[in-house]
């Protein structure tokens, strides 16, 4: 099965309104995510891309209250290694969970599960531009606003 390869099969996770159930225990919100192939269409052309729990990756969201920690268990159900990049969750001192694939961040091999714990920083703003933030919600985008609208 051919997959749309964006940035070495990187899945982008974003912060937002939760679309799937999560368990909450003693200030820790836990999610179980499976990286799966999903049928999608880009500009009307059907293709297979990467998703979370059989849904498009941009629909996977993390919803926490101030003071709660986030724990995510990620299982790779693809035929190839993948990576997880956390947009919207600041990763100070944790490049192994939000670094450069194959340099500071290890891949998640097929049929492997990894766990990550995040301690959200309430002062962090991922994108200073509302325009760029809205584009981030649509998937992998350029941070160079001048590329868009040419």
Automatic annotation (TrEMBL):
<dbReference type="GO" id="GO:0005507">
    <property type="term" value="F:copper ion binding"/>
</dbReference>
<keyword id="KW-0732">Signal</keyword>
<dbReference type="InterPro" id="IPR008972">
    <property type="entry name" value="Cupredoxin"/>
</dbReference>
<dbReference type="GO" id="GO:0016491">
    <property type="term" value="F:oxidoreductase activity"/>
</dbReference>
<feature type="signal peptide">
    <location>
        <begin position="1"/>
        <end position="26"/>
    </location>
</feature>
<feature type="domain" description="Plastocyanin-like">
    <location>
        <begin position="40"/>
        <end position="113"/>
    </location>
</feature>
<dbReference type="InterPro" id="IPR045087">
    <property type="entry name" value="Cu-oxidase_fam"/>
</dbReference>
<protein>
    <recommendedName>
        <fullName>Plastocyanin-like domain-containing protein</fullName>
    </recommendedName>
</protein>
<comment type="similarity">
    <text>Belongs to the multicopper oxidase family.</text>
</comment>
<dbReference type="InterPro" id="IPR011707">
    <property type="entry name" value="Cu-oxidase-like_N"/>
</dbReference>
<dbReference type="Pfam" id="PF07732">
    <property type="entry name" value="Cu-oxidase_3"/>
</dbReference>
């Amino acid at each position: 099965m051919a997959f749309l390869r964006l940035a070495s099969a990187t899945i982008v996770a974003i912060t937002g309104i939760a679309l799937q159930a999560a368990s909450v225990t003693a200030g820790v919100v836990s999610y179980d995510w499976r990286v799966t192939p999903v049928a999608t269409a880009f500009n009307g052309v059907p293709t297979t891309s990467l998703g979370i729990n059989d849904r498009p990756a941009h629909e996977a969201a993390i919803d926490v209250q101030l003071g709660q920690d986030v724990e995510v268990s990620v299982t790779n159900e693809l035929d190839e290694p993948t990576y997880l990049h956390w947009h919207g969750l600041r990763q100070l001192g944790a490049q192994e969970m939000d670094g450069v694939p194959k340099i500071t961040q290890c891949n998640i091999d097929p049929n492997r599960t990894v766990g990550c714990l995040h301690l959200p920083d309430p002062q962090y703003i991922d994108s200073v531009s509302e325009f760029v933030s809205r584009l981030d919600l649509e998937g992998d985008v350029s941070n160079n606003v001048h590329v868009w609208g040419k």
